[in-house]
Predict the 3D structure of the following.
Amino acid sequence: MARTNTQIFLANRPPNDGAIDPKLGATFDQRRVPVPEQLPADSVLIEVKYLSCDPAMRGWLRDARSYLPPVQIGETMRAAGLGVVVASTSSAFQVGDEVSATTGWQTHAVMPAKQVEKLPKREGAELIDALGVLGSSGMTGYWGLFDVAGLKGGEVVVVTGAAGSVGSVVVQLAKLKGCTVIATAGSDDKVRWLKEELGADAAFNYKSPTFSADLKKCCQKEYKFVDVVFDNVGGEQLDALLLCLRRYARIALCGAISDYNRAPAGLRNYQTLIAMEAKIQGFIVFTYASRYEEARQQLAKWIGEGKLKRNFCYAEGGILGTPQALVDLFSGVNKGKMVVPL
Ligand SMILES: NC(=O)c1ccc[n+]([C@@H]2O[C@H](COP(=O)([O-])OP(=O)(O)OC[C@H]3O[C@@H](n4cnc5c(N)ncnc54)[C@H](OP(=O)(O)O)[C@@H]3O)[C@@H](O)[C@H]2O)c1
């Protein structure tokens, strides 16, 4: 019997200074199409098992110049996915292979073999790690911290958005490097998790009325300023941290989720960069694609040794739950990596 592929596509762009509407028929909508019976040459048919939800997807909905072209109206939403090959016309893939690819938000994906990556078995790791520590989040944390920020052992590091997918990796990598870690997140439960489970030396809830004063006191007085900021959040938190830099500090500008749904207000304290001869550098993880395997081998070794904890937040609703899962990233529902199991 013919199989059906359910796709979630972009129906309407959200306003640049507003949120995505998760109801189907608003920002996104669904359609059901037949899974092709015949595959093109050198292709695979993937039955998708897990889909990714990432804050970057908010940016892909904007009709603006960026590192990737915007998703077009009517196009299946771009997303990373993990799944199993169920048909193949490629000599490189067999039925049953576990793979990752930019499948998009759909239940079945026909992909050219060259755009699909076979996932090797790694001791201690699970398939789903390919969306977390061994996937884009881990690559972002690893290269952002060690290459962009050039973290050295014994330094003082601040990680914003620390309980999320990238942030929770960065906190642990910095601790493995022997650094002091100050973390920020959006709930007392996340703050506890960061300190008690992931090893952060200090952590602060940015929703507390005393957050800014507490963070500055910790960074400026207790730790005598900081060497590295790994920033996932931007906005007010980044602005406050500009006042906490040591001489020659480095800021790795990974993300700015606090400004993704609004018009950014700008940074008032940027002159500290001059006074402290500090550097601020944005980066895109794809730049490091040729070095992913180097990072994966190290990260998989730490997973195998039990040195890296991973946490997943499983969204509900299957393929139809993808828009809500994306919106939930903006209210901080997730601790660790948000995934949609199909
Ligand atoms: N440069 C790159 O190549 C690259 C690659 C991957 C990701 N990123 C960026 O890295 C950041 C983290 O991505 P991720 O995949 O790890 O997502 P994530 O942190 O797992 O999820 C997003 C988190 O952001 C926090 N958040 C939401 N709204 C916020 C606000 N207004 N202020 C402060 N925090 C807020 C929420 O946690 P709370 O409960 O703490 O609010 C939420 O859990 C994002 O900015 C993303 O765009 C960049």
Summary: The domain at 136-286 is CATH 3.40.50.720 (Rossmann fold). The radius of gyration is 21 Å.
